[in-house]
Specification:
Blueprint (H helix, E strand, L loop, with lengths): L5 H14 L2 H11 L1 H6 L7 E7 L5 H13 L4 E7 L3 H12 L7 E6 L3 H11 L5 E7 L8 H10 L1 E12 L4 H8 L15 H11 L3 E6 L2 E3 L9 H11 L4 H4 L2 H11 L5 E4 L2 E5 L2 E7 L1
Parallel strand pairs: 1-2, 1-4, 2-3, 4-5
Antiparallel strand pairs: 5-10, 6-10, 7-9, 8-9
Helix pairs in contact: 1-10, 2-4, 7-9
Length: 286
Amino acid sequence: MRSLTAEEYAEAFKSFLDHSTEHQCMDEFNKEEMPNIVAGLGNGKSTINVLGVGSGTGEQDLKMIRIMQAAHPGILIDNEIIEPNPQHVAAYKELVNQAPDLQNVSFLWHQLTSLEYEQQVKEKGAHKKFDFIHMIQMLYRVEDIPNAIKFFHSCLDHHGKLLIIILSDSSGWASLWKKYRHCLPSTDSGHYITSNGITDVLKRLGVDYHVYEFPSGWDITECFIEGDPVGGRMMDFLTGTKNFLGTAPPGLRRQLQEALCQPECSSKKDGRIIFSNNLSMIVVES
């Protein structure tokens, strides 16, 4: 067994997105809460400075930018992006090139990890401040999570906001990681972090925050169909392992499949197995 490469991870992640309501869940949050969250940004300045940390292929970034444009018509948006995966950066740039409605938005990509960006900022000694920073579903891949949150919070301008989107403690992932961790292979290089782990850090930092909970599901039915290529890719995503179903010891494979069916992880709906992918949206004040 071996861990996924960056390319393999991007492919496995796509199979997850195709079968989950992750993006619909974020759309719900964007519609219900984001207009209020971004209404006070920029504090009357002519430019709103935005930083996306681990922005992936940019779909969520652009949705949030459009909400900012609607809330602040005519204002300039200076959008910087930290994203280490070259495939993701290329896809994001392509998305921007195809968008006709981003005239007042400038884009600057840093093809770096969040830690490399932090080190670069500290070496330069110049600390650019941002009105809005978001870290969407990316802290699993960060080594020192408390330090990352502390650093990016320090990059906020007065009245700025930091948005962290992370798996909820009510999600199947939380149960899987706490109760069935022994079913996961050591090749899974991600960190098992959920909302409570983040709010603990924020409490220690003594900052104000608000948590919004949104339900989301992931149809994992194919993971139980022998030889199904989609199920194989989804299991690769779930375990962070290349060809998990083909290379894992049969006992481990069976244990994990049994764990995924437990009621604290998933539910049955119309004969399909829906893994709970509930999200917490945490808005942190500067």
